[in-house]
Amino acid sequence: MKRNQSPCIDVCDFSGPKGWCLGCGRTREECQTWKGMKPYDKNTLQKALKKRMVKIKTLHSEKD
């Protein structure tokens, strides 16, 4: 796997909390700025995305 590869999984549904994508957890703005981000910022965002995805999955499972 390439370092700092985009977390996108081609779902692109921004109906999560705070406008987060249900596929990768990023906001539209984070998706647009991903390629221009410095490696440190990408790593920081990747860590935040892990937490966001847990929250998204928890909220989604509560709906079912």
Task: List the main descriptive attributes of the protein structure presented here.
mainly alpha; single chain; 64 residues; 48% helix; 2 helices
How would you explain this protein's 3D organization?
With 64 residues, this protein is mainly alpha-helical. The protein has one domain. The protein has 2 helices and no strands. The protein has helices at 28-33, 39-63. The longest helix is centred in the last third of the chain and has 25 residues, at 39-63. 14% of the residues are buried. Pfam families: DUF1289 (PF06945). InterPro entries: DUF1289. This is DUF1289 domain-containing protein. It comes from Grimontia sedimenti.
Write the layout of secondary structure elements.
Elements: H1 28-33, H2 39-63
In short:
48% of the residues lie in helices and 0% in strands. With 64 residues, it is mainly α. It has one domain.
Quaternary state of the chains: single chain
Termini separation: 34 Å
> Which residues form runs of ≥5 with pLDDT under 50?
none
Largest sheet report: none
Share of residues in strands: under 5%
Order of helices and strands: HH
Alpha carbon gyration radius? 12 Å
Helical run tally: 2
Mean of residue pLDDT values:
92
Secondary-structure class: mainly alpha
Helix content: 40-55%
Gross geometry: elongated
Count of folded domains: 1
**Total number of beta strands:** 0
